[in-house]
Amino acid sequence: QVQLVESGGGLVQAGGSLRLSCTISGRAFDDYAMAWFRQAPGKEREFVAAITWSGSSTTYGDSVEGRFTISRDNAKSMMYMQMNSLKPENTAVYYCAADRSYYGGRALEYVYWGQGTQVTVSS
Q: Rounded to the nearest 5°, which phi and psi values hold at 18?
């Protein structure tokens, strides 16, 4: 059974930084392309960033490019997202997603999801 576990969320002031982490239990980590999505109250789930199996390619949603950086360390079975210059509108539950055959920004393509971690940015 594949389980994704996120960590690193919390409360931060506008302009601050957070680093989210995600790992997969139960399977070989580098078998999966991975991504971050977020969902704010009353809004649809939004693509944030994705990274290929090897980590050689990344892609970002328009609203975060230049401020957020996705990365992975396959030796440690960890994926990260460094979030800088956070804004109140970045407040959301952030979800880690993984798939063996898809890399990109379409949420419906990802088979495996974590429980989410709350990020709150105060003004």
A: -145, 155
Residue 119 in contact with residue 14, Cβ under 8 Å? no
Q: Report the pLDDT value the prediction gives residue 30, as an integer from 0 to 100.
A: 86
Whole-angstrom CA distances from 116 to 45, 56, 75, 103, 123 are 12, 25, 23, 20, 22
Chain centre to alpha carbon of residue 100: 16
CB atoms within 10 A of CB 43: 9
Neighbour-count burial for 74-89, b at 16+ CB within 10 Å, e otherwise:
eeeeebbbebeebeee
Nearest Cα residue to 26 out of 88, 77, 95, 83: 77
Whole-angstrom distance, CA of residue 31 vs CA of residue 119: 28
pLDDT for the residue 82: 98
Residue type, 17: S
Q: Quote the tokens at residue 28.
A: 């070989």
| Segment 32-74, tens digit of pLDDT | 999 999 999 999 999 999 999 999 999 999 988 789 999 999 9
Query: Count of residues for the chain?
Result: 123
